[in-house]
Write a structure and sequence with these properties.
mainly alpha
Length: about 200
């Protein structure tokens, strides 16, 4: 058995670009960034999507429009990117990722659950890391790739365990308020995200 390390963002982009070029197409940086946002770190899926795009654009450049029209977005990855934007206090990106999720998933409760899961996973990852677990073990426990764990821990280093506990408590309060009709779910979720 060979243990293979997950690719980081730079390696993933290089891998995708190289495979597109091997298939006789090209891609610009903006389109490449969009494609990575759509696919996340799923290289098996990336291979199939690259083949589809390169077939369409044989001897030509793959555009952002091609990607938006032909590639299904990975919403789990968007939820993860949303949490990364929350952690870095990048309100413009928070709104961008939230609006993208909201425009494609017309279920605010589902989006809230995705956000809750990502914050809970961050919390568990930090606790396990502090207890001495390896990234591979944390990935197995959370059922995510070790590469995702690496980014989770990297992002979570900026937060204390207490901060994550507060986020979780705020999510529980918001969920209660939404389910009991005390606040509009869309407004409540937007306010929750912007005040974090």
């Amino acid at each position: 058995i060979i243990d293979v390390k997950d690719l980081d963002d730079v390696e993933t982009k290089a891998w995708i670009k190289r495979n597109i070029e091997l298939m006789g197409s090209s891609i610009g940086d903006e389109a490449l960034n969009l494609l990575v946002d759509f696919l996340g770190d799923d290289l098996l899926r990336a291979e199939k999507e690259i083949e589809k795009l390169a077939t369409l654009r044989k001897n030509d450049r793959i555009t952002e429009k091609d990607i938006k029209e032909l590639v299904a977005r990975n919403y789990d990855n968007d939820a993860f990117l949303l949490i990364r934007a929350v952690i870095s206090k990048n309100h413009a990106k928070v709104l961008e990722y939230y609006n993208n999720l909201a425009s494609n998933i017309n279920n605010t409760s589902f989006i809230l659950n995705m956000i809750s899961k990502n914050i809970s996973d961050l919390y568990i990852a930090i606790k396990l890391d502090n207890a001495g677990y390896s990234q591979k073990d944390i990935g197995n426990i959370l059922k995510v790739k070790p590469g995702r764990v690496y980014y989770m821990l990297k992002e979570a280093k900026e937060l204390s365990v207490n901060t994550l506990e507060n986020y979780i408590n705020e999510i529980v309060k918001l969920d209660y308020r939404v389910k009991n009709g005390l606040i509009d779910k869309n407004f409540g979720l937007e306010m929750f995200l912007l005040k974090l």
